[in-house]
Amino acid sequence: MSISRRDFLAAAALGSTSMAMGLSAGSQESRHIARPAPAGKRPALIAKNTGLHSLDAAYDLLRRGGDTLDAVVLVCKAREDDANDQTVGLGGLPNEDGVVELDASCMHGPTRRAGAVGAVKNIKNVSVLARAVMDHTGHVMLVGEGAERFAEKMRFPKENLLTERSRKMWLLWKETMSHQDWWGPGLSDPNWKPPAPPTSEEWRRKREQMEQVAAELGIEPEWREYAIERVLHRQHGTIHCSAVNEKGEMSGMTSTSGLEWKIAGRVGDSPIIGAGCYTDQDVGSAGAVGNGEENIRVAGAHTIVENMHRGMSPLDAGMDALQRVTRLYNNDKTRLRYIQMVYYILRNDGAYAGVSLWSQSYTGKRAQFAVHDGKARLEDTVALFEGAYIEWPPVPKLPEGK
Ligand code: ASP
Question: Is pLDDT above 80 for 402?
Answer without folding.
Answer: no
